[in-house]
Amino acid sequence: MNERLSDRPNGDAALAIICGAGSLPFALADAAASRGRRVVLFALRGWADPKRVAAYPHHWTWMGQFGRFMRIAESEGCRDVAFIGTVTRPSLWNIRPDLRVMRLMPQLVRLYRGGDDHLQSGIGRLIEQHGFRLLGPKDIAPELTMPAGPLGSRTPAERDQADIRRGLALLNATSPFDIGQAVVVAENQVLAVEGPEGTDAALARVAELRRNGRIRSLMGTGVLIKAAKLGQDHRIDLPTIGPQTVEGAAAAGLAGIAVVAGTTMIAEPERIASAADRAKLFVVGVDSGQPAVP
Amino acid sequence: MNERLSDRPNGDAALAIICGAGSLPFALADAAASRGRRVVLFALRGWADPKRVAAYPHHWTWMGQFGRFMRIAESEGCRDVAFIGTVTRPSLWNIRPDLRVMRLMPQLVRLYRGGDDHLQSGIGRLIEQHGFRLLGPKDIAPELTMPAGPLGSRTPAERDQADIRRGLALLNATSPFDIGQAVVVAENQVLAVEGPEGTDAALARVAELRRNGRIRSLMGTGVLIKAAKLGQDHRIDLPTIGPQTVEGAAAAGLAGIAVVAGTTMIAEPERIASAADRAKLFVVGVDSGQPAVP
User: What ipTM was assigned to the predicted interfaces of this complex?
Assistant: First the structure.
């Protein structure tokens, strides 16, 4: 462990991709490979999709096997590390700590007391302390982040832009409390603030409130607004949308989705655009905390 | 309509109580009657409990029958009006506007665009514009509001007090956005921010997150924190807890409930205290925005 991996020359370094759920890990692997990089997937058991993982050089790992990860990553010649894909905050029971992690326990327990951010940026620091370089998906493949402006053919109306502004201001206010990264606002009324249940569940809640007549605004009004938390480490856990987010927003009777351009990951942009057009929703990349564009 | 009811002498004025759901309307009616006041209930169809309403002088009314309310309240000699009991934000389809309300429509539509607060304080202004005096439950029966300190035998531990402080700070930050009046915080992690679904549903969500292993803290940790919104009209729609809140908090695996003393209504304090002791939860009245007492 004394030789720092970062002292090695960069040219032959492979990229270790620690993979959670969804299709983003594979989009990132493909994007890195297309740039001539060798990639090695570290697939998290219970999260990464086994069928798709099989198509890449890979190692299966439990959450918490940090010693094992470092050993294999070193022998594979990995210097850079990226985290990508959905991993909800793990229950302590789902973590299989190895010896290295046991030694780090006091540090990890401190990280664990607090919101997601705290935990995740701590994991980032830990990785770098052990001689790896942590890269964000954006550093590797900027095309995986949301561009400014609409995906698909619809754009937010003036009423929607007011909801987007209110949503961004609310996310700004809750950011220090390290909650979720999404809110739903319809005609100025806040319909949901995402907690640990995640965006899909928050949208399902709005759909249920509509069914129960607890929302005054009509179907086809309201916006899902997502933004990274202030000070969040953009290399880990950026907010993400995919085609299923569009379907959830449609089921919740919303007018569209607004995410902060450049700091939101998008899985399968073409499928998002076609799902949005089919559902008659807008999906737009906006400036953070600024009046909604375009 | 030209004679202002507020010009009448106060002595013979009856109290009109507009009743939503739950037991609080009857507690308020009893408290007013025990002070020698004549009370007339205006029971909201779909909300007020018909069995209990029958025991008092009453008139059934639909939401929105403001002209009818004023006519009957005048003929009953009511000068003071109180709103009490649960009424979730009504769907427009559940309102039966009468002629008076139709004339006020442009004003009401403006009120309707915005959160609950906006709507409710607007209704308060409307009532006063028509010559009534709007009283808060606290003006009539201070014993129906939460006292400082614990109900029941348990008190918050130091860890719980930290969660209470964080919850109050979060409610303070979201208050300008006119969202809910409750949050759940466990070991510094925010587990839920209440939206239009209400406190009981937010607690049920936390219970489900626990069942799904999405919450890291152990059973018996975490606090439901409730506070009136800043600038909220304390005469209308104060946050409320009752025995079912204690049951919901217990099912969510929390350590207790903290509400702001003096501005939270309590239905059946003895039943709350015994439910809390049975479930081994604390229920405590705290200072708003201040370190948790006692």
Answer: 0.78
